[in-house]
Automatic annotation (TrEMBL):
Protein name: Cyclopropane-fatty-acyl-phospholipid synthase
Biological process (GO), any one: methylation
Domain Polyketide synthase-like methyltransferase: 147-391
Membrane spanning stretches: none
Example of a GO MF term: methyltransferase activity
UniProt organism field: Prauserella shujinwangii
PANTHER family in the cross-refs: CYCLOPROPANE-FATTY-ACYL-PHOSPHOLIPID SYNTHASE
Similarity comment: family membership: Belongs to the CFA/CMAS family.
Keyword Lipid metabolism: yes
Keywords, sorted A to Z: Lipid metabolism, Methyltransferase, S-adenosyl-L-methionine, Transferase
Glycoprotein is among the record's keywords: no
InterPro entries: CFA/CMAS, CMAS, MeTfrase_dom, SAM-dependent_MTases_sf
Length: 419
C-alpha cells in the first residue's frame, strides 16, 4: 500500500481529476482540500459493500447504511461518480482488489431496507400478480404520509410536474400538469373520469374542483387512499369524487368519458401492457380519451427491468419501456393515438425541487421514516434527476381515443389544449 493508503487507491480508480476529496477510515486522504464534495468511507464495511457488489448496488448499500457519507451536495458527488464508475470495467475492479487485498472482499448481509432478490421474490407470487403488485406498492408508498408531505409539498403529487415558465414554483408546475391533463382529456362539467394509480388524489381533486367532473381514483396503497379520501372530504368534493383502495383491474364501472393514468404504467410490466390498455379501453365510452403519463426508456432496445438499486430499494418489480412500445401497445389494443410529448427536462426540475424539500426538512423526514429510508429517497431522487438530465430516461404523455366503429373520434381538428 502506498503512503496515501486506501484513499490513494480509490483516487487512482476514479481519476485525480474527479472533483472529490476522499477520506478513509485508515486516516488516508486524497483529492483537493477545496473540492466541493468530500466522500468519507467510515469503516471497512463500506469497502466490503462496494467490492462485494460492484456498481450501483454496492455504492447504494454503503450510502444507505451511512458507512459511506457525502459531505457537500449529493448531486455533485453522484455526477462525478457516475461519470467515472459507468466507464469502469473488469480490469479496473481487478486492479482495485489487487491493490486493497482480499480482506475487504467479503460477503456482508444487505441492509434490512433492501427488498429480497428476484428469486426469493418469485416465491411470493408471479411477477405482477395482484398479491405481489400490492406488496411492491406498499413497500414504496406506505412509508409515511407525513414523510411524503415533507418531500412533495402541498400538492402531494408524486409525478413529473410541467413547468409553464422558467421561474414557476413546484406547486405552480404540479397544478399546471394536472390542468394540462384535464385539457388534453377534453374534460367538461358532468363528465365521468377514472384516474388509475391516483396516488394521494391530486388529479381527482383538480379535475373535480376545476372542471366539474365526477371522478373515481383508485390506488393500491392503503395510506394513499386514506389520505386522499380525507382530502376530498375536506375540500367539499365528496359528492362528486371518491378515492378507493383498489387494484385498477378490479374497477367494475364502465362508460367513463376519460381515463387518466399518471405514473402507473411503470408498475404494470411490459408483457402486461396489451391487457392493461384493453382493460382501460373497455372502461371508456366511444369517443372517450386516455392520457397515459409515464417514465420511459430512451429507446426500445434496452432491457425493461430497472437497475438493482431501484428494484431492491425503490420500485420492486418496476419496468420501463420505450415510448414506441407504449404507443404500439395502445394502438393495438383499443386506442387511436392522437398526440404525444416528452417532458424529460421537466422531471429533472421536479426532482431537484423534491430533493431541496427533503434537504430543508431532513431532520423531521428522518424521524418520520427513519434515517436510512430518508437516505434511500435522497439517493434515488438525486440519481433519477441525473438520469433525466442525461436522457437515460424520459417522461412521455401519450393521448389516445377510443373511436366508434365508424371511426368517429370526437377529437378537434387541431389540438385545443394549449401548452
Amino acid at each position: 500500500m502506498t503512503a496515501r493508503g486506501l484513499a490513494g487507491a480509490l483516487e487512482r480508480l476514479l481519476g485525480p481529476e474527479a472533483p472529490l476529496r476522499i477520506e478513509v477510515f485508515d486516516g488516508s486522504v486524497a483529492g483537493s482540500g477545496d473540492a466541493p464534495v468530500t466522500m468519507e468511507l467510515r469503516s471497512p464495511l463500506a469497502l466490503s459493500y462496494i467490492l462485494s457488489s460492484p456498481g450501483e448496488l454496492g455504492l447504494a448499500r454503503a450510502y444507505v447504511t451511512g458507512e459511506l457519507r457525502v459531505h457537500g451536495e449529493l448531486y455533485l458527488a453522484l455526477r462525478a461518480l457516475t461519470e467515472r464508475v459507468d466507464a469502469l470495467g473488469f480490469r479496473d475492479h481487478t486492479a482495485l482488489l489487487r491493490t486493497l487485498g482480499p480482506r475487504y472482499l467479503r460477503r456482508v448481509a444487505p441492509p434490512p431496507e433492501e427488498a429480497p432478490g428476484l428469486l426469493r421474490r418469485g416465491l411470493r407470487g408471479l411477477r405482477h400478480s395482484r398479491g405481489r403488485d400490492s406488496s411492491a406498492i406498499s413497500q414504496h408508498y406506505d412509508v409515511s404520509n407525513r414523510f411524503y408531505e415533507l418531500v412533495l409539498g402541498p400538492s402531494m403529487a408524486y409525478t413529473c410536474a410541467c413547468y409553464p415558465a422558467g421561474d414557476a414554483t413546484l406547486e405552480e408546475a404540479q397544478a399546471h400538469k394536472f390542468d394540462l391533463v384535464c385539457r388534453k382529456l377534453g374534460l367538461r362539467p358532468g363528465m365521468r373520469l377514472l384516474d388509475v394509480g391516483c396516488g394521494w388524489g391530486g388529479m381527482v381533486a383538480h379535475a373535480t374542483e376545476h372542471y366539474g367532473v365526477h371522478a373515481l381514483g383508485v390506488t393500491l396503497s392503503r395510506q394513499q387512499a386514506q389520505w386522499g379520501q380525507k382530502d376530498i372530504v375536506a375540500r367539499g368534493l365528496a359528492d362528486r369524487a371518491e378515492i378507493r383502495h383498489l387494484d385498477y383491474r378490479d374497477v367494475t364501472e364502465d362508460g367513463f368519458d376519460a381515463v387518466s393514468s399518471i405514473g402507473l404504467t411503470e408498475h404494470v410490466g411490459a408483457r402486461n401492457l396489451p391487457g392493461y390498455f384493453r382493460f382501460l379501453a373497455a372502461r371508456l365510452r366511444e369517443g372517450g380519451r386516455l392520457l397515459n403519463h409515464s417514465i420511459t426508456r430512451p429507446n426500445d432496445r434496452e432491457p425493461h427491468r430497472v437497475g438493482p438499486f431501484i428494484d431492491r430499494y425503490v420500485f420492486p418489480d418496476g419496468e420501463l419501456e420505450g415510448v414506441g412500445t407504449i404507443v404500439s401497445a395502445m394502438h393495438d389494443n383499443g386506442f387511436e393515438v392522437r398526440h404525444e410529448e416528452n417532458l424529460r427536462e421537466h422531471y429533472g426540475r421536479t426532482l431537484a425541487a423534491w430533493c431541496a424539500n427533503l434537504d430543508a426538512h431532513w431532520a423531521e423526514a428522518a424521524r418520520e421514516a427513519g434515517e436510512r429510508r430518508a437516505r434511500v429517497w435522497a439517493l434515488y431522487m438525486t440519481a433519477s434527476r441525473l438520469a433525466f438530465e442525461r436522457r437515460g430516461i424520459e417522461l412521455h404523455q401519450v393521448l389516445g381515443v377510443k373511436t366508434s366503429p365508424s371511426g368517429a373520434s370526437g377529437m378537434p381538428l387541431r389540438p385545443d389544449w394549449g401548452v
